[in-house]
From TrEMBL:
Record GO terms (molecular function): endonuclease activity; metal ion binding; metalloendopeptidase activity
Protein name: YBEY Endoribonuclease
Matching NCBIfam families: rRNA maturation RNase YbeY
Chain segments annotated as transmembrane: none
Pfam families in the cross-refs: YbeY
Family note: Belongs to the endoribonuclease YbeY family.
Signal peptide: none
Organism: Nesospiza acunhae
GO terms of biological process kind: rRNA processing
Cofactor: Zn(2+)
Keywords from the named record: Endonuclease, Hydrolase, Metal-binding, Nuclease, Zinc
Length: 162
């Protein structure tokens, strides 16, 4: 499910929804639901303060339904557990960053959703080996492990989702 809980930045929901579906498929998680919320800076700041003790807006927060090791899929015991969790996208924050860097907002929004999805699947990026594990997992979706992880690096997923 995709919910736009902010009004400051227009969000093209259909392409974002298709890209997230393609990312779930690329990661082998298409049978699992994901909640996606496009959030304001105020909501992201509040959530970041409560859950990470950092009361500032941010680009993405992920709240997994299951605790899994990186690269493992949950093993639900009933129908109601086919849920990976929720991803909150700080669209105001992302939009501001894109204005500063000149990157395409829709591309970066999709990359950021992929970042959140990786966290729902147990991936972390605190160390270089953990970051490389994320790149390896997303390699096929990005067009290979050497593809960039921002901006046009998401084009293969967007093309597949169209």
């Amino acid at each position: 499910a995709l919910r736009n809980a902010q009004r400051a930045v227009p969000v093209r929901r259909a392409p974002l929804r298709r890209a997230v579906c393609a990312l779930r498929a690329a990661l082998g998680a298409s049978r699992f639901d994901v909640g996606l919320v496009c959030a304001s800076n105020a909501l992201m700041q509040r959530l970041n303060g409560v859950y990470r003790h950092c009361p500032e807006p941010t680009d993405v927060l992920s709240f997994p339904f299951h605790q899994v090791e990186a690269g493992e899929l949950p093993r639900p015991c009933c129908r109601g557990e086919y849920n990976l969790g929720d991803i909150f996208l700080g669209v105001e924050y992302i939009h501001q960053q894109c204005r500063e860097t000149g990157e395409d907002f829709d591309d970066v929004l999709t990359v950021t959703a992929a970042h959140g999805l990786c966290h729902l699947l147990g991936y972390r990026h605190d160390t270089k080996p953990e970051w490389e594990q994320v790149r390896d997992a997303l390699g096929p979706a990005w067009g290979g492990p050497e593809a960039p992880v921002t901006g046009t690096g998401i084009r293969p997923v967007l093309t597949a989702a169209a």
